[in-house]
Amino acid sequence: MTALTLSTSSAAALRADAVVVGVAKGAKGPVVAAGAEAVDKAFGGKLAAVLETLGATGAEGEVTKLPAASGLKAPVVLAVGLGEVPAKGDGYDAETLRRAAGAAARALSGSKKGAFALPIEDPAGVSAVAEGALLGAYTYDKGNGNGENAKGKDKKNNGPLAEVAVVGGKPRDKAYKAAAERATALVAEVNRARDLINTPSNLLNPAAFAAEAVAAAKEHGLKTEVLDEKALKKGGYGGILGVGQGSDAPPRLVRIAYTHPKAEKTLALVGKGITYDSGGISLKPAGHNETMKCDMSGAAAVFAAVVTAAKLGLRVNLTGWLALAENMPSGSATRPGDVLSMYGGKTVEVLNTDAEGRLVLADAITRAGEEKPDAIVDVATLTGAMVLALGNRTFGIMTNDEAFRTTLHEIAGEVGEQSWPMPLPDHLRKGIDSPVADLANMGERMGGGLVAGIFLKEFVADGITWGHLDIAGPAFNESGPFGYTPKGGTGAAVRTLVRLAERTADGDLG
Ligand code: BES
Ligand code: MN
Ligand code: ZN
Questions:
Q1: Which of 114, 150, 272, 460 could cross-link with 380 by S-S, CB 3.0 to 4.6 Å?
Q2: pLDDT reported for residue 204
Q3: From ligand 3's centre to the CA of 205, what distance in Å?
Q4: Does 387 sit in the ligand 1 pocket, CB within 6 Å?
Q5: Nearest Cα residue to 189 out of 494, 421, 450, 471
Q6: Catalytic site includes residue 234
Q7: Banded pLDDT at 154 (limits 50, 70, 90)
Q8: Mean of the per-residue pLDDT values of the chain
Q9: Would you say residue 509 has pLDDT above 80?
Q10: Whether residue 393 lies in the annotated active site
């Protein structure tokens, strides 16, 4: 991964391939942001005018590259747009810095070192610039299975920007150092999630995903337990088995646990891990299945969050449940109309085999509840309906507790993830009644994202606070990269889960 350093040198004196400065949209043209004083000086105080001549406006995400003036060690200046100049007295908010740093890091892919001289006022500013730059620098390069690059044997990937130096960082100040260390640990795990999501389904089946979890757990002192198809059968996990039985690659349920000796709270995180969702017998049409390797994004997020908590040594217990299966049609696949006996004994009539996420999650949520955690949060690319409702960049939040819904929404906002609270209206419950089982896995078409939430709620043990994040929209970016978000797997929800763990550790859940 891209290396991160905090630099005490001035932006002018730093040896780098490019020095990154911020430019905002002022009333009368572009305005150079704080942090770029030394660079502006090298341009005789005319950097804003030069940028304006080059067509820069300061619009968010805009990137302008220009040759450096003499007196600067870096040969290139990269000006990145910050959007509107903040109101007097206000600094740039964290997400603006994160996005700008991400856009700059993307524009520097293939370079060795970028010196980021953006407007940083405090350790939070360092966090934002470091996170944005490291997230933006991400490239996926395991694509063809030869472990080298995604473009074929003879073609070279540009590769990520190798080093990010944050100008204005104070490496000897504890708070600054901690901010940099947190950013490094967190982004490494967001990028781990992205790698898992981007890995083609022929290279990442449930057993392979489970093996990744076991290997990472070993490295970071976590406990794992892997239930294979035999153990799942013995345990009565009819949901996970029913979804996985059409595939030649059998399902797994992974429990990956981080514990802290002084923890007062325990969070259970449950992730949907469909390594490929063909729809099963209710087969998806072409046009709807090309990106379905991303259907394990929830499990990837949960896995990444648990490892991050371990790296940061958070004072909280975190149990991750990865519900892994491949949803395929075959002679052994579950049929529409079949009845599954779920973990814990409830029965479910499968009306549509493409509504498989809720089946694997139901088993895992029931199992997680047996351990009586203080809260359960599940994360899933669960419904196309949520994408229709909220678009491609916002995840939906459903809970059995209104205060918790607000808290999750706030936390997501704090870390720069877009989310929106969604209701679980009681009247939708009767839609999932079944004449032959306790429940059906499909109900009314309208409000399909909420129907899925209502289904899951049935499997949450009484008295446990529960939240459900439907990340079907933001998990996988099919269009071009923007800010610090690459094309493909995004690592959606990892930062929200980590912040939730931090707030829980601090006893600060609002
Ligand atoms: N994995 C899909 C949901 C999805 C859609 C994720 C688009 C990412 C992007 C899920 O398993 C699914 O197929 N859901 C169905 C449910 C329906 C059959 C009740 C859907 O949303 O159409
Ligand atoms: Mn499906
Ligand atoms: Zn799915």
A1: 272
A2: 98
A3: 14
A4: yes
A5: 494
A6: no
A7: low
A8: 96
A9: no
A10: no
Catalytic residue, chosen from 98, 252, 358, 405, is 358
Beta carbon of 392 within 6 Å of any ligand 1 atom: no
Ligand 2 geometric centre to CA of 157 (Å):
33
> What ligand is nearest to the CA atom of residue 472?
1
User: Rounded to the nearest whole angstrom, what is the distance from the C-alpha of residue 279 to the centroid of ligand 1?
Assistant: 8
| Model pLDDT, residue 107 | 98
What pLDDT does 289 receive?
Answer: 95
The domain limits of the chain are 3-143+157-167, 191-505
Please check the confidence at residue 225 and state whether its pLDDT lies above 60: yes
CA torsion sign for 292, 296, 298, 301 is: negative
Q: Span 414-426, mean pLDDT? A: 98
Domains 3-143+157-167 and 191-505 share a fold: no
Residue 277 Cβ < 6 Å to ligand 1: yes
Instruction: Find out whether 312 and 399 touch, Cβ atoms under 8 Å.
Output: no
pLDDT of residue 508: 81
Which of 83-87, 130-134, 146-150, 201-205 comes out lowest in average pLDDT?
146-150
Q: Is 88 left (phi over 0), alpha (psi -120 to 50) or beta?
A: beta
Letter string b/e over residues 174-208, b meaning 16 or more CB atoms within 10 A of that residue's CB: eebbebbebbbbbbbbbbbbbbbbbbebeebbbbb
Structure tokens, 464: 């446990």
Helix (H) or strand (E) holding 79: strand 76-84
Q: What is the 334 CA–ligand 2 centroid distance (Å)?
A: 13
| Fold (CATH) for 191-505 | Aminopeptidase (3.40.630)
Catalytic choice (73, 142, 177, 284): 284
Domain over 3-143+157-167 is classified CATH 3.90.1170.50: no
Between CA 40 and CA 365 the distance in angstroms is 56
For ligand 1, atom 14: residue with the closest CA: 383
pLDDT bracket for residue 155 (50, 70, 90): low
CA angle at 450 for the pair 447 and 453, rounded to the nearest 5°: 155
Atom of ligand 1 nearest to the CA of 284: 13
Task: Determine whether the shortest distance from the Cβ of 385 to ligand 1 is under 6 A.
Answer: yes
Q: Mind listing the pLDDT tens digit for each residue in 56-102?
A: 999 999 999 999 999 999 999 999 999 999 998 899 999 999 999 99
Please report, as a single letter, which amino acid is at residue 272. K
